[in-house]
Automatic annotation (TrEMBL):
It comes from the Bacteria. InterPro entries: GntR_C, TF_FadR/GntR_C, Tscrpt_reg_HTH_GntR, WH-like_DNA-bd_sf, WH_DNA-bd_sf. This is DNA-binding FadR family transcriptional regulator. Pfam families: FCD, GntR. Residues 26-96 form the HTH gntR-type domain. The keyword Transcription regulation applies. SUPFAM superfamilies: GntR ligand-binding domain-like, Winged helix' DNA-binding domain. Keywords: DNA-binding, Transcription, Transcription regulation. One of its GO terms (molecular function) is DNA binding. The keyword Transcription regulation applies.
Length: 261
């Protein structure tokens, strides 16, 4: 995946979403089903949430509209989403977990776990460094933008609005470094960590923690406290993104052991 900054600069950071090694070949739609069921189980996509329009969502996931359409129909047949036709219709998440969830998630996570581990390591290193540099280099305009995004997240009620506000905040932190490559890196890490959905894990506890973290990180950057901004950002990532993924892996491994036993 290649992300381009407003200045036309680009970097390429990609976690191959195709599973490594020999295995049963799945269609693009079947692979996307695995990705989306994993995202739903993580809370990145929530029950009742209306998914973005087809064109937008396909672009975000980096798949064709045909692949997305096929995957959504499979998810509907499995009970994970409901599809309503008509002008006011759309696709809404219906269920977080089904009888087949463990199998789909194991198919998604386990063959890619080494790659995800490398990605966690990279993110734990780079995001705190970006926040630390932001605290050293920020200007008043950056501080205003960071606080505005934090406030937008606080006020957001719909999941997609929260996602957009969260993304805006972390992008604003990266912009405060004055280096557009950091903006590109921040965006690409987010996409890779969320399997292309651009939505991190979510529940009421995570939301409250995110609200507190956003304010604390913004305050540290405004105060020019590089060390605190970096440390807060590291724990923000580990606790709200990495640990939920680890817990999900443990859950599906335990379920798999129970099924085989």
């Amino acid at each position: 995946m290649r992300a381009r900054t407003s200045d036309g600069l680009s970097l390429n950071l990609s976690l191959d979403l195709a599973a490594p090694g020999p295995m049963k070949v799945k269609s693009a739609a079947e692979q996307l089903v695995d990705r989306l069921i994993t995202s739903i189980a993580l809370g990145a996509l929530l029950p009742g949430q209306k998914l973005p329009p087809e064109r937008e969502f396909a672009s975000r996931l980096n798949v064709s509209r045909t692949t997305l359409r096929d995957a959504l129909h499979q998810l509907e047949s499995l009970g994970y989403v409901s599809i309503t036709r008509g002008r006011s219709g759309g696709v809404r998440v219906h269920s977080t977990w089904g009888p087949e969830s463990g199998s789909h998630i194991r198919s998604m996570l386990l063959p890619r776990w080494q790659h995800l581990t490398w990605l966690f390591d990279l993110t734990r290193t780079l995001l705190p460094a970006i926040a630390g540099l932001a605290a050293e280099r920020r200007a008043d305009e950056h501080i205003r933008k960071i606080w505005a995004a934090a406030e937008a997240y606080t006020k957001a009620e719909e999941r997609d609005h929260m996602r957009a506000a969260d993304h805006a905040l972390h992008s604003a932190v990266a912009e405060a470094t004055g280096n557009p490559y950091y903006v590109s890196i921040d965006s690409q890490l987010r996409i890779q960590l969320t399997f292309g959905t651009d939505s991190l894990p979510y529940d009421a506890e995570i939301r409250q923690r995110a609200l507190d973290d956003h304010r604390d990180i913004a305050a540290a950057i405004e105060a020019g406290d590089s060390a605190r901004a970096a440390e807060l950002t590291k724990h923000h990532f580990v606790d709200l993104a990495e640990k939920p993924m680890l817990r999900l892996r443990q859950r599906v491994e335990a379920a798999g052991a129970g099924e085989s036993g």
